Structure formats: structure tokens, C-alpha cells
Amino acid sequence: MADLLEPDEALSRVLLAVPPPATVHLPPEDCLGLVLAEAVLACADLPPFDRAMMDGYAVRLVDAGRTVTALDEIAAGDGTSRGALQSGHAHPIMTGASVPAGAEAVVAIEQTTRVGDSVRLPERIRNGANIVPRASECAAGQPWAKAGEIVTPLTLAAALGVHTARLAVHQRPQVAVIATGDELAAAPSQAGQIRDTNGPMLVALLHEAGLAARRQVVGDNAEALLTSLRSLAALDAVVLTGGVSAGTHDEVPGVLSRLGAEVLFHKVAQRPGKPLLLARLGRQLIFALPGNPLAAHLCACRYVLPALRQLAALPHVPVRGRGTLVTALPSNTERTWFLPARVQAGSVMPLPPVSSADLVQPHQANAYIRLSPGAVALPAGTEVDYTRIGADAWAS
Amino acid sequence: MADLLEPDEALSRVLLAVPPPATVHLPPEDCLGLVLAEAVLACADLPPFDRAMMDGYAVRLVDAGRTVTALDEIAAGDGTSRGALQSGHAHPIMTGASVPAGAEAVVAIEQTTRVGDSVRLPERIRNGANIVPRASECAAGQPWAKAGEIVTPLTLAAALGVHTARLAVHQRPQVAVIATGDELAAAPSQAGQIRDTNGPMLVALLHEAGLAARRQVVGDNAEALLTSLRSLAALDAVVLTGGVSAGTHDEVPGVLSRLGAEVLFHKVAQRPGKPLLLARLGRQLIFALPGNPLAAHLCACRYVLPALRQLAALPHVPVRGRGTLVTALPSNTERTWFLPARVQAGSVMPLPPVSSADLVQPHQANAYIRLSPGAVALPAGTEVDYTRIGADAWAS
Q1: Domain locations in chain A?
Q2: In whole angstroms, what is the distance from residue B293 CA to residue A131 CA?
Q3: DSSP secondary structure letter of residue A26
Q4: How many angstroms separate the Cα of B279 from the Cα of each of A186, B49, B209, B316?
Q5: What mean pLDDT is reported for chain A?
Q6: Residues in chain B within 8 Å Cβ distance of A32
Q7: Inter-residue contact A265 to A5 (CB < 8 Å)
Q8: Could you tell me which residue, A195 or B64, shows the higher pLDDT?
Q9: Closest partner residue to B158 among A152, A160, A359, by Cβ?
Q10: Nearest Cβ partner of B154 from A97, A191, A365?
Q11: How far does the CA of residue B13 sit from the closest CA of chain A (Å)?
Q12: pTM (2 d.p.)
């Protein structure tokens, strides 16, 4: 086992190989889930004018308890310029509208009595009541969000509210998935052929991480793979599956060498996923995952997603927890074993595959249990540690 | 306050108004995150043939320790029909390939020595070694996934692996967002105009929930809103914002009445979000949210998303927790107050808005604190309950 990298060392090398996050400037609507690369300064006051907080009348304080004359109504979006409000008058005003100069409060419609053009105002009117003063939430030029914050639905709404045309954010990684193998077919027609399951699975894992990945299927053909990789050179990462074991048809290592990519490691002391390979070509990371679906899944969850999250400056440490085994865990051999499991309400149900290619048994996994080399069997009822997988599996 | 619905009663009425989830049949790739409406039966064996688990030689057990003759190689995807393997011979075979009849094990390439066409086999060969027997993971016609399961990346890969063309799943709700208000402008040019912030915010909240919503902006014009709603009649839900208070320009209640929609409630004893309205037209739910952005946010998180999740048969109870106040909480008046907060590592930081329309202060909220009517002020250091919001906020 001396030539195999330990899993923790492999993860360290993956994270070390990730280039610094790139910064792009995007409209706020396109920034959901991305990380702010710079503080955001308000380029306009918020609110941009003294804003009415409810439907009512814009009034002078001296008119409290009096009957005044109703002027024209001010609606939200009304841009008419008006003189300052004089005592003895009141403007009907709608929620969100701009309070006219001179008005010191907005009185709620329920607190008034109107007959024709006459409006009876309440006895007590608080100065500034129901008015949000211009710039009270944020003044133009002031920072209102910090670098490192993740853009939430409220953040993007706030950005639009303060008229921010673009936000400086860390780019969403651009990724392609290539499944390799002559046995892969869109609609298997002959014995020995199987459908590509890894491609859709990896695209789904990336989708859960907020990434839209392109997908290709390439046969065990070095030239085709080379052409494909060259066409994807501008992407941040390429995730290959299949073609990294020692078989004569496993073209990936040779193709990477012809491409000029630097292989950072190949083979990890883990089960499944031993043949994992990581290469780098300029800024691009190339992950070559085994063709075995569960191995591809483990490698994607454990290495690819943390790398892509780090590239987007997102937290990349998965949530860990401890729960009680519902069924026994077998003993382990000499390689670290990542065993799929379903965690629910403190219970941990191991979902060992029937074979290394089995997806049926583990298909509801939301965690992996890590078994150290030589770990002894554990009976049901034992407490074990687990690492969560899935869209909600990342510690903040 | 007698005419206002209590927030818990409002939520009950929302959930009661949700029709039963509809079932559709979709390709596995399109089912990520959806709930299975029926058990899934395998329509082919998995694996579909005795599959080699590694690169090596397909052999007879009687040849252990002998030197045998290498025949033609069997690659993954190779559909050549062959006679049964005879003693004295071995087929080189690749991972994932179909093991020929007669072969009782696959011996790893590292355990053999090859000179020309002669292959020396190891002394001990286990029966069935490195072969995954046909149908051992799942036999054709057998159920391998249950109704109610959420489709994971592994589920869809397993479905493709067992040649399932379509899965019966509960439909992803089809939703549109309509922001109403004459004050809304794409690029504000005159005083009193503001950008639509609610539309993009609601689209983002729905996106976090896995839903792609269409977005429209309609002025305070009953005819335009009516036309718009009629064109969206086929959708599961429409989320309106603005136009539900008592102002003369608030067209929504009148338009809903002309449309023939049944108003299930209007106004809730909560802050923010008092004007919330729920209507139903056939199967369609129509949520009319206040135009105030934070009110729209709270109503979307507390009422709209749980309804849409229930419609998709997904768990719809948000994660709740308890943490320590970092700063003091003010006392509350007579209406239930949902106060945005940021929860991190057991600490709860209230993020009260400067005004009811302020998004800047609360923009990093990932939770709401609920203050009961008349709740007293609480000093920093007090333990409080919170309800999480966001993509990872749903209990499973």
C-alpha cells in the first residue's frame, strides 16, 4: 500500500491545488448563493425619499385635532413636484409614496374622518410617524454588506433596492462531466452495454451544489478524449469517470500526459474510489473518478464538491455528526472504507452495497461512515461518527 | 384585532388549502429532489449479466495454480457471443465486462504472470471471486425504491442502471411571481419610482426550493392584472406582491373576486405581513403578499414555501432550534412579531429592520425569532427559540 495516498492527504492535496477564487461582476439577480468578493457600497440612498409607511394623510403637526382640506392624492410612483405642505391642508398618500416637503407625519387613514374635501385629524400626532426618512436604512456611498457574505434572497433584493447594478462576487465554477467507456450507451441494445449512470449522477450532485454542468459521453478512445478535453480548456474543472484503472483500455492517464496536464496524485488508500486521479492544467482541475458508480459518488462528495466550493469561496467542510448504529458494521480490511448510510433522528443505518457497483442498496444514503484500516466489527447500538452528504451537508 | 387571523391558524388554513400532490412520469434525470409517488420496480436485472469487478482473467477454478492459454480479450461493452470457457483457457477481461459462461472467477491481473499467450494463475482462487452475479443487486420486476422517498443523485443513477425509463413522482409545482405597483420600474427614472425588489427576491426563494418561477411586473391596473392571472390559470400557484392593503390603488381583492377566486383569508395578526391574503381558484393557490419586502419575505418563508413543499409531498416543517441572544430583544405589542435573525454556532443575533421596508439590516438573516403578543423585552444572554429559513431549513 506504500504507493497509495492516505485519504486525508489526498483531500489536502485537492484543496491545495484549488486556485484562488476569481472575481466577477454580476447583476444581483444572478448572484444567489455566491460569495461577495468585496464590500457592497450603496450607490443611492435607501429609501431614496421620505417614504410613507402606510396609506393615510401627509400632515403638519400643528393640525393635530383640526379639520383640514384634502389636496390631491400622492400615489406610489407619483413623480409630480409639489410645493411644501401648508398648515390647514393634508395630502392623501399611499404606502410607498414620497412624502411631500413640509409634511411631518403620515396619519393612518383609520385615524381620520373624511367628509367631502374635509378631513378630521386625530388629537395626537407623533413627529415623524409612519415616515421612513430618506437614507435612514443606508446612505449612498456607505457599505451595507461585507466581503465573504453569501448572497441570500434578501441580499439581492437589498442590492436592487439600493440601485446596485452589479455585485462583485466569486465566480460560480464552470464544470463539465465526461463519462468514458465503450460500454456506455444511451439506449443499450447489445449484451455488455450499460447506460451511462455516472454522468447524470455527477450532474445531479453538481446541481445540488448550485452548479450547472455540461455532460458528455466519450468512448475508450484517446483521440476523442483529447479533443473533448481541449474543447473544455476554459472551464474551471472537468470531472471524468472511468478509464483510470490499470486496464489496457484505460486511456485517461495517457491522454492527460499528452495534454500536458500535471498529475498531482493517482490512487488513494480508500474503498471505494482507489483509482482516483487529480491533475491540473493551468487553472483547470481535472478529476478522474473511477467508473464504478458508488466510487464516483464518494469521490465527488469527498473531493470534487469541497474543491469546487473552495473555488467559489464557500464553506467546504461537510457537517459531521454522531449517531447510533441500527444494524451492525462489518470489520474493515487494510484500506479506509467509506460506507454509505442513512442518518435520521440520531439513528445511523449502514447501507452497504451488494457489490462495488451496486447503487440500489445505498440509493437513499445521506451520509458516509468512515471505517479506519483494520477497524473491528461493531454491533448495532454502538455510537459512530458520520459525515453528511447532499445539498444541506455543508457547515456554515 | 378580532378580524385578524392568528398566524398558526393562517398556516393551518394554507396547508389545508393545498390540493393532493399530482403524479407525473418523468425521466430519472429530471427527478432530482422530487418525491416518488409509487414504488419503483426494476424492469431489468442489475447487473444485467455476471459482471467482472476488476481487470484480470476469467477462469475455471480447476485451473488454480496452472498455466493456461489466454484467449481473446473481453472488453466492457463487448457483445460477442462466445462458447463456455473450457479448462486450460482464460479470457482477459476488463472491469464492467460480461463474464463468459463457464468462468467461475475473475483473477486480478496483478495475481497473474503472462508470457506470450501463457498465463500463470495463482494457487488459490475463490469461487465467484470478483464476479457480481446477474440480478444480485436487484432482479427484474422487484421493487427497489419505495413511494415517499426523495430522489437523490444515487436514486436517479440506480434508476438509469435498472433501465427505468420514467419514474412516477410528485410534480414539481409550477409557480409564477407577479409584482404589482405603479411605483415599480425596471430602471427608475423619476422621483417616487423604485425597482422591483420583491419579484427577484421571491424568484430566488423559490429557486432555493428547487422551483423555477416565472416573473412579471404589473402596474396598479385591474384589467392588466386580470389578464395576467387568466394567462397563468394552468399553474399550481401564483404569488402576488403588493396591492393587498386598504388603499384605493390596491386592486388585488377586487380582481380576485372578478376572477371567481375564493378568498380563504385576508389579514393575519402578524408583523410584518398583516395584509396577507390567500385565495383558491380550482386547484390553483393564489397568495397575495404585501408589497413591503420584508413582509413578502416572511410570508413566503412561513406560508408559501411550506404550501409548495406540501404540494410536492416534501417535508414542509422548518427546522427549529434554540440559542443565546447576542443582543437584547425589544418588547412586543399586540401582534405576533417575526423578527429576522442570524443564527450561528448557538448564538442568535437579532437583525431588526430600521423600518418595515428595510432589507439592509436583515439581509443576512437565516432564521426568524417569534415574539408572542405582549412579549416582554429580553436581555442579551437569554435563550430563545428560532425557526430556520433557507434551502437547508427543512426537517427531514
Answers
A1: 7-22+172-311, 27-45+137-170, 51-132, 320-388
A2: 16
A3: E
A4: 45, 55, 22, 20
A5: 92
A6: 204, 207-208
A7: yes
A8: B64
A9: A359
A10: A365
A11: 26
A12: 0.87
Q: What is the CATH number of domain A51-132?
A: 2.170.190.11
| Record: contact B358-A46, CB cut-off 8 A | yes
Q: What percent of chain A has pLDDT over 70?
A: 95
For residue A316, give the nearest of A393, A386, A368 by alpha carbon: A393
Tens digit of pLDDT for each residue in A238-297?
999 987 665 555 788 889 999 999 999 999 999 999 999 999 999 999 999 998 899 999
To the question of domain B24-45+148-170 being in CATH 3.90.105, the answer is yes
pLDDT tens by residue, A17-74:
999 999 999 999 999 999 999 999 987 787 889 999 889 999 999 999 999 999 999 9
Is A196 within 8 Å of B355 when comparing Cβ atoms? no
Q: Copy the grid coordinates of residue A246.
A: 490499470
Confidence of residue A1 (pLDDT cuts 50, 70, 90): very low
CA distance linking residue A98 with residue A58, whole number of Å: 10
Q: How far apart are CA A324 and CA A134, in angstroms?
A: 56
Closest-CA residue of chain B to A31: B204
Identify the bridge partners of residue A319 per DSSP, sorted by sequence position.
Answer: none
- Exposure of A18 by Cβ count < 10 A (0-12 exposed, 13-18 middle, 19+ buried)? buried
ipTM: 0.86
- Local confidence band at A137 (pLDDT 50, 70, 90 cut-offs): confident
Sequence letter at residue A207: H
CA distances from B53 to A273, A288, A358, B69, B132 (A): 13, 19, 11, 22, 7
Query: Which of B32, B184, B249 shows the shortest C-beta gap to A94?
Result: B249
Measure B282 CA to nearest chain A CA, in Å: 30
Q: Considering only alpha carbons, which residue of chain B is nearest residue A157?
A: B197
Instruction: For A7-22+172-311, give the CATH class.
Output: alpha beta
Transcribe A55-124 into DSSP letters. Answer: SEEEE-GGGTTSEEEE---B-TT-----PPPPTTEEEEE-TTPBPPTT--EEEEGGG-EEETTEEEPPS-
- What are the φ/ψ torsions at residue B175 (nearest 5 degrees)? -135, 145
3-state secondary structure of A214: strand
CATH superfamily of A27-45+137-170: Molybdopterin biosynthesis moea protein, domain 2 (3.90.105.10)
Question: Cβ contacts (< 8 Å) between B366 and chain A: which residues?
Answer: 152, 396
Type of residue found at A269? A
- Cell readout for A121 is 385629524
Query: Residue A238, class by beta-carbon neighbours within 10 Å (0-12 exposed, 13-18 middle, 19+ buried)?
Result: buried
Chain B CB contacts of A153 under 8 Å are 201-202, 204-205, 208, 297
Assigned CATH topology for domain B320-388:
Beta-clip (2.40.340)
Q: Which three-class secondary structure state does DSSP give residue B62?
A: helix
In the prediction, which pLDDT does A247 show? 54
Q: Which amino acid is at A166?
A: R
Q: Flag residues of chain B having pLDDT under 50.
A: 1
Tally Cβ neighbours within 10 Å of residue A27. 14
